[in-house]
Specification:
Helix content is 31%, strand content 37%. It has one domain: Hotdog Thioesterase (Thiol Ester Dehydrase, Chain A, Roll), CATH 3.10.129. It has 149 residues and is an alpha+beta fold.
């Protein structure tokens, strides 16, 4: 019973943090990035590619893809309500995004040791084809995103 309660408390904390991030991340709001699911160490975000996100090559701008992945990374890393920032990250662009694509970024925290973590993010199109792979290293800086969570 105690493990179930801990899991339930952790999920409630992740839910509160997710709502706070969604409400406070103006960059994500401007890009139409929305939170679909959040659990401790996990986040799923979604974004539709709009005409104003297209670069000169006619595909989704890489910085927009990076922002989608980085937002999912931030949610997964902060899901424990320990204020966490990126210490470094990289992205591999595999296929271009096109206007009308609905992209989903799934972030999974792979490891968390003391104040340092590693999180992988996979961006897929609506047809489940992988568009980009992102890996981020996180660092806990102290404090909380949500008080009393």
């Amino acid at each position: 019973m105690a493990d179930h309660r801990k899991a339930s408390d952790a999920q409630q904390r992740a839910d509160r943090v997710g709502r706070a991030i969604e409400a406070g991340d103006r960059a994500a709001q401007a890009l139409g990035i929305r939170l679909c699911e959040m659990r401790p160490g996990y986040a799923l975000m979604e974004m539709a590619v709009r005409p104003d996100m297209i670069n000169v090559a006619g595909t989704c701008q890489g910085g927009v893809l990076f922002t989608l992945a980085d937002t999912a990374f931030a949610c997964a890393c902060n899901s424990h309500n320990e204020l966490t920032v990126a210490a470094g990250c990289s992205i591999e662009f595999l296929l271009p995004g096109q206007v009308g694509d609905v992209l989903r970024a799934e972030a999974v925290e792979r490891i968390l040791v003391k104040r340092t973590g590693v999180c992988d993010v996979t961006i897929k199109r609506q047809d489940d084809v992988v568009v980009a792979l992102f890996r981020g290293k996180s660092h806990r800086i102290g404090g909380h995103l949500v008080e009393n969570a």
